[in-house]
Amino acid sequence: MNPRVLEAINRQINSELSASYSYLAMSAYCERQKFMGAAGWLRLQSQEEHMHAMKLFDFVLARDCDVQLQAIEQPKADFKSVAEVFEKALQQEQEVSRQIDALYEVAFHEKAFSAAAELQWFLTEQVEEEKTAREIVAKFRMVGNDPASLLDLDRDLGARSASEAPVKE
Length: 169
Ligand code: FEO
Prior knowledge:
The structure is a single chain. This protein has helices at about 5-30, 35-60, 80-110, 115-145, 145-160. The chain is mainly α. The chain has a single domain (about 5-160), classed as Ferritin, CATH 1.20.1260. Helix 1 (about 5-30) runs antiparallel to helix 3, helix 2 packs parallel to helix 5 and helix 3 packs antiparallel against helix 4 (about 115-145). The longest helix is centred in the C-terminal third of the chain and has 31 residues, at about 115-145. The protein is built from 5 helices and no strands. Bound molecules: MU-OXO-diiron (FEO).
């Protein structure tokens, strides 16, 4: 594989694993606040990010190249509220979208067509992930501090199941 593309994909594996770790920290915070629905949603999201990393990991290996795992930064674990957690989640998804766009640009520029094809999936996935996060943020802003509405929202988030957003092959 083109070395620039390989390096960029290895960096993206790290970003996806960092996102997974970050969602795990968010999940722990929500569980400590007894928002069990939000905690469950975030735990599933953490697993989804792990699958994203593995998809790129498997792609690198399938191209007979070296996976280079890098250190994962300690994630933010302290938040002001569960609403803030989801604001951060949206920002994180927006950042990942920028990274995927940049990665796609490198692949395209270097004429790495198989990598570009692999990354198509991620471009589509990011549209969905940002949309979902944006909707949840909007709901938190709408309900504000109303306890009954927050409980309802937490229940809705808890209804997410692992099979809801499967990683398509
Ligand atoms: Fe894998 Fe949510 O970005």
